[in-house]
Amino acid sequence: xxxSVVTDSTACxxxxxxxxxxxxxxxxxxxLGSRTVVDGLGVTSTDVARALRAKVPxxxxxxxxxxxxxxxxxxxxxxxxxxxxxxxxxxxSGTWESAVLAAQDFPHGIVRVVDSRSTAxxxxxxxxxxxxxxxxxxxxxxxxxxxxxxxxxxxxxxxVDTLEYLRRGGRIGTAAALFATTLSVKPLxxxxxxxxxxxxxxxxxxxxxxxxxxxxxxxxGRDHVxxxxxxxxxxxxxxxxxxxxxxxxxxxxxxxxxxxGPVVGAHLGPGVVGxxxxxx
Length: 280
Fold this sequence. Notes:
Blueprint: E1 3-8, H1 15-20, E2 24-26, E3 29-32, E4 35-38, H2 45-53, E5 58-61, H3 65-77, E6 82-87, H4 95-103, E7 111-115, H5 121-135, H6 140-152, E8 154-159, H7 164-169, H8 175-179, E9 186-192, E10 195-202, H9 205-220, E11 225-231, H10 235-248, E12 252-259, H11 262-268, E13 273-279
Parallel strand pairs: 1-2, 1-6, 6-7, 11-12
Antiparallel strand pairs: 3-4, 3-5, 8-9, 8-13, 9-10, 11-13
Helix pairs in contact: 2-11, 3-4, 5-6, 9-10
């Protein structure tokens, strides 16, 4: 019997990959003012960027344990023997906790939950690895192992125009200590063990973006790698970084370019550009 793979909407997975690998995506929700909608349905990252700039209150919420349990049950009823559920960092959201609570409704080991310690394609790459191993006929332990190994081989870097939106959402973590007194700088951040931490302080956006490319290339080393380039309302910046990475990564496999979804965009704000790199 097959193993089904579940993730959440912050993975920012390409729709084609979701369909081809039969990944089940449980959405988070985003609230703009008084309106709450499902992530990616009825609201876009452009809507979120516009609301943030206009200082409209923006917040996000996780799926409930009941929502996860219903999805798991549906997959098991459809013939899955096990479910491997891969989610965004438990340090950034209660989504992982909801999945863990839901897993307790089933016999031990039937539902296995993995903390990606990241988000966007930092979550997407482990979910893809799990789904590919499942498609090959891997056991639940092997599918879970594929996700966990990919988590260990993944690095996430990003640049934001301002720390204001991370401060509003309470996701700034230890970056606050590094940058709170120097908010005029252009911060480069990274995800370390699931938390957002400061990496470097750069004086201009152009220097920050150039440094983002350098960090990504350095992280790749001589390995075969897949990369994602993300942005919110910064397509030109992201396209420039994509071009440079294609030129500078000789062992580049897949390169995914796309805008972050509304939930992730709500916490990072317009202008953000990030890279996710996974060593094969």
